Amino acid sequence: MGLDDLPLFSQKTDKPAETSEPVSDHAAPIGEKPKHLSVTELTAKIRGVIEPPLSDVWAVGEISNFRPAASGHVYFSLKDQNASISAAAFGWNARRRKFEPKDGMQVLCHGRVTVYAPRGSYQITVDHIEPLGAGALQVAFEQLKAKLASEGLFESSRKKSLPPYPKRIAIVTSPSGAAIQDMLNILNRRAPHLRVTIIPAVVQGDDAPRQIIRGLALANRHGLGDVVVLARGGGSIEDLWCFNDEALARAIAQSKIPVVSAVGHEIDFTIADFVADLRAPTPSAAAELVTGFWVEAVGKIRESKIRLLQAIQRDLSVRKTLLGHVAARVVSPRDRLREQAQRCDELSLRLERAFRVRLDKRRALLEQLMGKLDALSPLRVLERGYAITQDEDGNIVRNAAAIRTGREFQLQFADGKAKVRGV
Question: What would the mean pLDDT of 55-73 be, rounded to a whole number?
Answer without folding.
Answer: 88
